[in-house]
Structures are given as structure tokens and as C-alpha cells.
Amino acid sequence: MADTSAIKEHMEVIGADGVHVGTVDHLDGDRIKLTKKDSGEGSHEGHHHYISLGLVADVEGDKVRLSANADVAVTFEEEA
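RESULT FIELD:
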């Protein structure tokens, strides 16, 4: 597992395919809380989503890379 202690506010979260998933708001226990601006559309818009730290493959500079492609990773997102 990656060194999740290196995850900081405003880092970009990307899938294994390099596609943008979200932006780190902060760590919340064993999850990454994403900013509201990346919350999606419709019923998903305007509230925070969370990604499990278990999906983090690596922390590279200012990016958090997940072990799943972006389109799969968003299916694992949790809502507040």
C-alpha cells in the first residue's frame, strides 16, 4: 500500500488510467474526502464524495493515483 500520510489538501486524485477523479479536500479516517466541486451532476452535485484509502496505489508528487481506472473508481465512491 502507498504512503497515504503524504496525501495533502488540494492534491489531484487520478485513476490508474490517468483520468481525473477528484481533488482532495482532506483525509477523513480511512477515506479521502473529495472537494464538492468534483461532486458530479444531478443528485450527486453539491456534496462531498469519499474514496477509500484502500484504492490508493501511489502518491506521486501532487497526485494521488488509484489502483482502479477512473470510470471504475467512481463506482466505489461513497457519499456523505
